[in-house]
Design a protein that fits this description.
This protein is an alpha+beta fold. The chain folds into two domains: 178 residues, FAD/NAD(P)-binding domain (3-Layer(bba) Sandwich), CATH 3.50.50.60; 155 residues, 2-Layer Sandwich (D-Amino Acid Oxidase, Chain A, domain 2). The protein is built from nine helices and 20 strands. The strands form three sheets. The protein has a nine-stranded mixed beta sheet. A hairpin with a 4-residue loop joins strand 12 and strand 13. Helix 1 runs parallel beside helix 9 and helix 3 packs across helix 4. It is globular and about 65 Å long. The relative contact order is 0.20. Bound molecules: flavin-adenine dinucleotide (FAD). Flavin-adenine dinucleotide binds next to helix 1, helix 2, strand 14, strand 18 and helix 9.
Length: 412
């Protein structure tokens, strides 16, 4: 499968990023983290905070896979919505999952301050809307359910709030807090560099090809036949982790999703507070802005049913991808007719993995008791990575956080 295609926007200026060596001998460590995307970086950070000896390896360069194509919208809300999530995992778990997301946005902002990362982080309001008048009651119930757990949001309706946005909507939830935007590649590099100064060892171009996993001591072997012996193995390999679960019936759904980045625009007329926007259609459309007044619009997802097929292995300048980019451009122009000259600057596609309930898989899998998995599948990959990093590091420290139950494998 190909994880990314065309020109992922966050890979500009990669030549300025720090380069790490590849592993050139056998080593021993407390913790080995496999995967150097944003999930691996956050996982390393939480283990380093506990003073453990950590090694992070990536088969390629840091932050060049899913992390490099991410729209990097950080939002507390999990896509099915609170009411639907309750029907999947129960009231308490669903409420916890929403509040975890809320706290995770705050926590990531604190990490950014702590490491002094110029990753263009900015808090933003978020608007989730529907064009379907039949959904107004459901939207109101959803808004009340969120308010009941302390989330600061309000119901917008066409009658009351029509002037806030230039596009058509019937109703929506406008969240004042609990959402943000960032540059995920800059953040991943800065977080890794910060921890390298504290003793984290990082090896790029170091491909783990064999996992000899055991609860006491595991041995990982690289393509160059060097070994890493570790007390604990944390797998943060994103889509590549699916190789562990080939024998199981599919428990998640893969999509290829498409994005365009526009050139800077000179105003955001018809776009209240240039907030984060998502609609309720399937596939969703997401919109965000950047600190340079560009727009990112993502959507037009195509489901992947055949891992050997065209969509799973889509390359650059694929005619189907070009159609999806054009569709996104048409949509953003239609939504914001008062913004002059919306022109494309770059476009790209990436693999996205969703789950039935929108929640990630975090923790141990019954077939692999010797490893932890921090898999940011589901609706909020980046915040899930932070939540996973925190819970797994607590579990390794013997604190047995009960919240791991919410994100466990085999929950459906
Ligand atoms: C287009 C797109 C838009 C998205 N938008 C959002 C969004 O707005 N908000 C949000 O929260 N999430 C979003 N996501 C999801 C989010 O970006 C991902 O969940 C997150 O980037 C995954 O990071 P990761 O580190 O787990 O995976 P990756 O970035 O894919 O990193 C995994 C790393 O593991 C390495 N690896 C794999 N196998 C091995 C091996 N055997 N040995 C050594 N290294 C290995 C790879 O080289 C890779 O660098 C989006 C995803 C996509 C594709």
């Amino acid at each position: 499968m190909r994880t990314t295609g065309d020109s992922p926007m966050w890979t500009k200026n990669m030549e300025e990023k720090k380069i790490y060596p590849s592993l050139s001998g056998d080593i021993k460590t407390d913790i080995v983290i496999v995967g150097g995307g944003i999930t691996g970086a956050l996982t390393a950070h939480y283990f380093m905070k506990q003073g453990m000896k950590c090694v992070l390896v990536d088969k390629n360069k840091i932050a060049t896979h899913a992390t490099s194509t991410s729209t990097a919208i950080l939002k507390y809300e999990i896509n099915p919505g609170l009411k639907k999530l309750i029907s999947h995992v129960g009231e308490q778990n669903a409420q916890h999952a929403f509040l975890f997301g809320y706290q995770a946005v705050m926590e990531i902002s604190q990490i950014i301050k702590e490491i002094n990362s110029p990753c263009d982080f900015s808090f933003k309001p978020a608007f989730f809307y529907t064009e379907d008048s039949q959904q107004t009651d459901a939207m109101e119930q959803e808004c009340k359910a969120r308010q009941a757990i302390g989330i600061s949001c309000e119901l917008f309706t066409k009658e009351k709030n029509e002037n806030e946005f230039s596009f058509n909507f019937e109703s929506g939830i406008y969240s004042h807090y609990g959402a943000a935007i960032m540059n995920p590649v800059q953040f991943t590099h800065d977080l890794i560099e910060f921890n390298v100064k504290k003793g984290l060892e990082v090896f790029e171009n170091t491909h783990i090809v064999d996992y000899n996993l055991s609860s006491h001591q595991s041995i990982l072997t690289t393509e160059d036949e060097f070994t890493i012996t570790a007390e604990k193995v944390i797998i943060c390999t994103g889509v590549n982790a699916l190789e562990f679960f080939k024998h199981e019936k599919p428990f998640c759904q893969l999509y290829r999703t498409f994005s365009i980045l526009t050139k800077p625009v000179d105003n955001f007329k018809g776009w209240k507070e240039s907030c984060i926007i998502r609609n309720d259609k399937k596939p969703y459309t997401y919109l965000r802005t950047t600190l340079n007044n560009e727009i990112i619009i993502e959507g037009e997802d195509l489901a992947i049913t055949d891992l050997e097929g065209e969509i799973a292995n889509m390359g650059d300048r694929d005619p189907l991808a070009l159609q999806q980019y054009h569709q996104l451009l048409r949509r953003v122009r239609k939504m914001f007719p008062q913004i002059d000259e919306i022109k494309t600057s770059s476009w790209f596609h990436g693999l996205f993995i969703d789950t039935k309930d929108g929640l990630p898989f975090i923790g141990k899998h019954p077939d692999y008791p010797g490893a932890y998995f921090n898999l940011g599948y589901g609706s909020n990959g980046i915040l899930s990575a932070l939540i996973g990093a925190k819970l797994i590091s607590q579990d390794v420290a013997g604190k047995n956080p009960p919240e791991l139950e919410i994100f466990k494998f085999n929950r459906y």
